[in-house]
Amino acid sequence: MARIAAAADIGTRTFFGYFASKEELLFPGADDRVAAGLDAIRTRRPGERPADVLLRGLRTLPPDDDDLVGRLAMLRLKLIRKVPAVAGHAFAAQYAAQRRIAAALMEACPGELDDVAAAALTGAFTGAVAAALDVLLVGADAPPPPDVVRAGLVDAVARALGAHDRSEVRKPGTPAGQW
Known about the structure:
The chain is an all-alpha fold. 68% of the residues lie in helices and 0% in strands.
């Protein structure tokens, strides 16, 4: 943090006057992304499949959100790969978000999802987003155009969730092992 403050030509105390923690600096839009997902769930359309609700939430995020598809996302992913403390914080934040979204999704989809199915779908969604962004951003020297990253992200997540509503998926209330 001292190096960042020095590069910005400010003191460390001044830096922490703007940011409460290193995490706030690295994960500024996480709450906005969770809010978009929760809003999509709250505004679920009649007949809209649970996976499609999550995808709609992803599509409502700003198309050029630097925190999701730009330079900040690229930097964060590189740090997640190299710094265990950052990786741990990222995992904890993702896990907390998954639990909130899964609970809201289960409540919005009574009779369609039980708690296990809602948790699995939400985990698949958040895992697909993280994995797709990792591939789309980390290998590049500079961030690809946001529209290219976003299109690749939405396409990859949609394909990853495609199996969710197939008939061979266990229906809520059906005992495990029975399909």
